[in-house]
Amino acid sequence: MTARLTLVQGDLTRQHADALVNAANSSLLGGGGVDGAVHRHGGPDILAACRALRASRYGRGLPTGQAVATTAGRLAADHVIHTVGPVWSATEDRSALLASCHRESLRVAAGLGARTVAFPAISTGVYRWPLDDAARIAVGTVRDALAAAPDDFDEVRFVLFDETAYGAFERALADRG
Ligand code: AR6
C-alpha cells in the first residue's frame, strides 16, 4: 500500500515521527530556522553526533543534496535526518539538488526502517527558494519515491511553519492530483 502524503501546519520539532528531516547546512554544526530549532529542542546529543560525522565521514562537510542520520536526542522521533538544500539561484537551475534532498532523505529513512517521516519546506527560508516552486519539487519527488517503494513507508508528512507555506504545499498536492 502506498504511504499517505500529509500536510500539517506547525513546528517540525513538535512532531511525533520515526524520522524528522532537518534543513541543515553542510557544516552540520547548526544554524537558524529549522536547524536551530532541531538543536535547541533536541539537545546536545544531536550536535555531538554531527561533530562525530564531521570527524569521520564528512570532514569537508555534507554535500548539498545528500542526507545523513543522527540520533533525535530529546525530540519525539528516533532519528533526525540532516540534509543540505541548495541556495536558490535565479541564474542556475538547482532543482535536481532540491529533489535529491528529498530522495536521499527517504533513502536514508528506509535504510533505518523509519516508516513515518516528517519534512520541513527545505530551502524556502534562509536559502530563499520560492515556495510554490519548492513545494512542486518536494511533492513531486516524494510522490515518485513513494510510488517506487510503496511498502517502505506509512506516512510522509510535510510540516509547514505558516499559512503561506501550507497553501503552497496544498496547491502542489492538488496540482498533481
Ligand atoms: N518547523 C517547521 N518549519 C520551520 C521551522 C520549524 N521549527 N522553522 C522554520 N521553518 P530554513 P533553509 C520553515 O531557513 O531555507 C539554517 O540556518 C521556514 O519558514 O530553516 O533550507 C541552516 O543551518 C521555511 O519555510 O531552511 C542552513 O544554513 C523552511 O522551514 C539554512 O538555514 C526552511 O527554512 C538552510 O536554509
From TrEMBL:
Transmembrane segments: none annotated. Residues 1-177 form the Macro domain. InterPro entries: Macro_dom, Macro_dom-like. Signal peptide: none annotated. This is O-acetyl-ADP-ribose deacetylase.
